[in-house]
Amino acid sequence: MHIILLSGGSGKRLWPLSNDIRSKQFIKIFKTQTGEYESMVQRMYHQIREVDQDAAVTVATSKTQVSSIHNQLGDKVSVCVESSRRDTFPAIALASAYLHDEKGVPGEEPVVVCPVDPYVEKDYFEALKKLGEIARCGEAKLVFMGMEPTYPSEKYGYIIPEDANTVSRVATFKEKPDARTAEQYIRQGALWNGGVFAYQLKYVLEKAHELIDFRDYQDLAAKYGTLDKISFDYAVAEKEKDSKVMRFQGQWKDLGTWNTLTEAMEETCIGKGMVNQACENVHIVNELDVPVLCMGLKDVVVSASPEGILVSDKEQSSYIKPFVDKIDQQVMFAEKSWGSFRVLDATEESLTIKVTLNPGNKMNYHSHERRDEVWNVISGCGRSIIDGQVRSIKAGDVLDMKAGSRHTVLADTELKIIEIQFGKEISVQDKQKFEFPAL
Amino acid sequence: MHIILLSGGSGKRLWPLSNDIRSKQFIKIFKTQTGEYESMVQRMYHQIREVDQDAAVTVATSKTQVSSIHNQLGDKVSVCVESSRRDTFPAIALASAYLHDEKGVPGEEPVVVCPVDPYVEKDYFEALKKLGEIARCGEAKLVFMGMEPTYPSEKYGYIIPEDANTVSRVATFKEKPDARTAEQYIRQGALWNGGVFAYQLKYVLEKAHELIDFRDYQDLAAKYGTLDKISFDYAVAEKEKDSKVMRFQGQWKDLGTWNTLTEAMEETCIGKGMVNQACENVHIVNELDVPVLCMGLKDVVVSASPEGILVSDKEQSSYIKPFVDKIDQQVMFAEKSWGSFRVLDATEESLTIKVTLNPGNKMNYHSHERRDEVWNVISGCGRSIIDGQVRSIKAGDVLDMKAGSRHTVLADTELKIIEIQFGKEISVQDKQKFEFPAL
After folding, report:
1. Are B264 and B255 in contact (CB under 8 A)?
2. Share of chain A above pLDDT 90, in %
3. Fewer CB atoms near the end CB (10 Å): N or C, chain A?
C-alpha cells in the first residue's frame, strides 16, 4: 500500500512549542514504551510500520519542513517536496506524479492520502488498509474515510452518505457549517471529513492533467510555485459523482490546541516540573533546562521553550494566535537535517548559539560577509574545514572565523558547539554557500 | 541620625527571583519616577535620603550580601559585615561597636535599627526620626515602633503598651501567638513588633559587654563566628523595664510572599509579558529575555528567571518553600560587586556563562586547577591579565586560559563576556586567588 502523509502548515496555536519553523507535528510529546518521547509525525510513521511493514510512505511537505522530517524519521524516508505552499490539490497532484514518475508506481495501484496530525490508534491504520483495498477493487473513483461525529463541530466539513452501511455511496459533501446546521447534518447521518481518502494513482494523475498543464513530475515540480491555491475537496472530491465513504468509529482526534493536546498526554508533566496537591487538571510541557513549579492551579497548561512561556486556562488556549502574532522576535530554536540550534543570548552586536550536530552530519560550506564567528567546541569530536584547511576538533577547541572566511564542520560523534557571532548587522540572510570541498 | 539597616536572610519564598544568593530585598520590582526599577533595599535607602539628607546609614549584613549591597547602593555606603549568621543581638551589637569604634559616633547619639524589607512610605521615615528624638532625650532606654495591627496575625510578636497614648511605656512583650491569642492581645491594645527601635549608642554597647566578652569592634568582629545565636528581643528588649513604644499607623507591609509582593506592584507585568482580557488579578515578573503569555487566569502570579518558572495561585504562593527546597541545581545567576553573571548552558563537561562587568570593575586575579576557560568578549572594552601579560581587549576578542593559568579582566567600559568553562570537574570551589598584579 502507498500512503501519502500530508505534513502541513506551520502553526502558532501550540506556541511556544510550535513556531514559524517548527510545526506542531514535530513536538515530542508522546511517551513511547522505551520512555522516550516522540512527535506526532514519528508516532504516525511508527504506527503505520507496525500495522503494515511493507507500507510505502511518502511524506508530502514544504521545503521548510524537510530538515525536520529527515531529522525525525531518518534519511531513508521518501519525501516529496513542495517548493511553496499551494493547498492540498497541487500537493496531492505533485505527490501522485512523484510516485508514478520517480518511484515507478503503476497507475492501478491504490494510494491512501492522510494528514499527519490526527491522534489515532492501530485501528485507524487497519481502516486505511481497507480504504486502499476498496480503491484497488475499483468500487469507486474516490473512497473517503468518514469519522463518526461526537459533537456538532464547526471545524470540519461533513460527508453525507446515501445509507447507513459501513461503506456507502456519497450523497453529498458539505463545507464547515455552523453548529446548528452541523446538528442537522448529523441527524441525516453525516460524517466528519477528515481529509483521508484513497484512489487508484491514475485517477488523480488524470485529474491533475485536466486541471494543470504539465508533462511529468519534474515539470510539475518546476512550475509548482505558479499553481493556483485550491483544495482537493473543492477541485476534485466535491465534483466526483463516483465516490464512496467508509465509516470509522475509532479514536481520531485533532490535537491542534493545547486543550486537546494535553488530553492526549499520559503524564502531568513533560520536562522539569512540579505541581502541588492543590493543582487540578494541570499540565506542564517544559523544554527549558530549569524547572517549572505550579501551585494551586486548575485547568491550566504551562508550556516553556526557548521561544517563551505560555500559561493558559485550557479553554482559553484556543484563542492564542492573535497574541502570539504580536510577538516579534527571532526564531530561538530549530531542528535541522544535521541537528539543532538554540539561541542562548542576543545583544545588539552579538549572538550566542548552542549548535548540536548529529553524528555523521555536517553544515554547509559557507561564509558570512558582515560577521565574525567563533566556535567553542564543548563536547564530541569531528573535523572543521576553514578556508580549505581540514583540522580535527574536540571538546575544548576554539575556532576563529573572520568575516569572509569559508567554513564548515563535520560531526564524527555528536558534536556540541557554542557559536558566537560578532557584528553590527547579524542576519540569517548573510550567508553564502559554496561547494563542499573534497576531504 | 544614625540608622542601622538590617539586611538579612537569604530566602526562597520569592523563588525564582530569590535564591541562595539573592535575597528578596535585592529584587528590582518597584518602578521609580524615571521608569527604572529598584529593589527593596534601594527603595528604602532612597526614601531615607529624601526624608533626611544627613541620615548616616549603616547596612548590617552578612558576607554573602556585601557584593549585592555595593552593586545596588554604590561603593560609598557604610557596611558592617557579619562573617556568619548569628541572629539579631550579635548583629546589632557588632553594628553598634562599628559605629562607636570605627566611625567615632559618641555614646549619647541615638541610633535607629530597622529591617530593610518592609514596604513603607515617607511617613515611616518621619516616624523613625521621632523615634530617634525620643531616644536622644533619654525618655527611655529603648524606644520601639509599634505597628497598629490590621488583623490578628500569627507572624509577628506583639507589644502591649501601658496606655493608649501615641507614646506609652511598654507593659509587656509577647512572642508570636496563635490567631485566637492574637485577637485577645489586640483587644488589650497590643501593637505589632516590627523589629524597629531606637536607643542611645552606649546602651547597646553596655548590654553587649555584659553578655559578650570583647574589647572593641575589631575584637568582636574577629570572634563573631563563635557567638551564640540569640535575638535582640530575647537578649535585651524583653528584659528591659525602661522601654517605651510609639504607635505607627502608616503603611507598613511585609512583602515576604508573592501574594503580598504583587499587591505592591504598580503594573500587571514587569519584563516581557502579555495578559489577555480574560485574566483577572494576574501579575507577571519576568527576568528572562523571552515573553510570558497569560490567558484566562485568575489570582495568579507568574515569575520567571534563569533559576526557573513559578506559576502560582496567589494564596498558595506562601507554601512555596518545601517545593523550592527540593530543587537541586546550581545557582543560575548572581549579582556581584563587580557586576553579574548568568548561566546560559550547562553540560556534563562544560559551563557557558554570560559575565557582565561594570565599568571600572575587575575580577580577582585567579586560576583554576581542573578546568580550561575561554573568554569571548561580546561588548565593551577593557584589559585582561593572563599570567602577568596585560592586553587590551574589545568585542570580538577571544582569550584562551588553560588550567593553572592566572587570569583576570578589568572593565574600562561595561564589558560583556561569554565565558566557557571546559572540564570534567567544574566546581565553584576550584579557584585559587592571587595578589592583583601591578598594572
Report:
1. yes
2. 79
3. C
**Is the distance from CB of B358 to CB of B341 less than 8 angstroms?**
no
B126 burial level (CB within 10 Å; 0-12, 13-18, 19+): middle
Non-local (6+) Cβ contacts of A275 within 8 A are A268, A269, A282, A284, A294, A295, A297
A385/B312 Cα distance (integer angstroms): 50
Q: Which of B290, B312, B323 sits opposite A308 (nearest CB)?
A: B290
Q: Tell me how far apart the alpha carbons of residues B185 and B192 are, in angstroms, rounded to a whole number.
A: 10
CB spacing of A352 vs B344 below 8 angstroms: yes
Residues 6+ apart with CB under 8 A from B262: B283, B285, B301, B314
Give B172-218 pLDDT, tens digit per residue: 999 999 999 999 999 999 999 999 999 999 999 999 999 999 999 99
- Written as one letter, the residue type at B311 is V
CB contact under 8 A, B320 and A293: yes
Spatial separation of the C-alpha atoms in residues B244 and A348, rounded to whole Å: 58
Q: What is the DSSP string of B305-360?
A: ETTEEEEEETTGGGG-HHHHHH------EEEETTEEEEEEEEETTEEEEEEEEPTT
Length of chain A: 439
- The residue of chain A with its CA nearest to that of B355 is A345
Question: Does the beta carbon of B280 lie under 8 angstroms from any beta carbon of chain A?
Answer: no
Note whether A345 contacts B: Cβ–Cβ < 8 A. Answer: yes
User: How high is the ipTM of this complex?
Assistant: 0.85
pLDDT digits (tens, 9 = 90+) for A13-41: 899 998 777 888 999 989 888 888 999 99
Q: Which residues of B235-250 are buried (b: 16+ CB within 10 A; e: fewer)?
A: bbbbebeebbbbbbee
> Three cell numbers at B63?
558576607
Residues in B 181-210 with any Cβ partner in A closer than 8 A:
none
Q: What is the length of chain B?
A: 439
User: How many Cα atoms are found within 13 Å in the side-chain-facing hemisphere of B383?
Assistant: 12
B residues 394-423 closer than 8 Å to A (CB): 395-396, 398, 400, 416, 418, 420, 422
The residue type found at A258 is W
CB contact under 8 A, B308 and A290: yes
For A316, which of B278, B311, B344 is closest by C-beta distance? B278
| Residue type (1 letter), B39 | S
**CA–CA gap between residue B331 and residue B307 (Å, rounded):** 7
Which strands, in side-by-side order, build the sheet including B365-367? B389-394, B381-386, B407-411, B365-367, B432-434
> A37-70 burial, b for 16+ CB within 10 Å, e for fewer?
ebbbbbbbbeebeebbeebbbbbbbbebbbbbbb
What are the chain A neighbours of B300 within 8 Å (beta carbons)?
297, 311
Chain A partners of B285 at a C-beta cutoff of 8 Å? Answer: none
Q: In degrees rounded to 5, what are phi and psi of residue A331?
A: -65, 130
Which of A99, A62, A124 is CA-nearest to residue A203?
A99
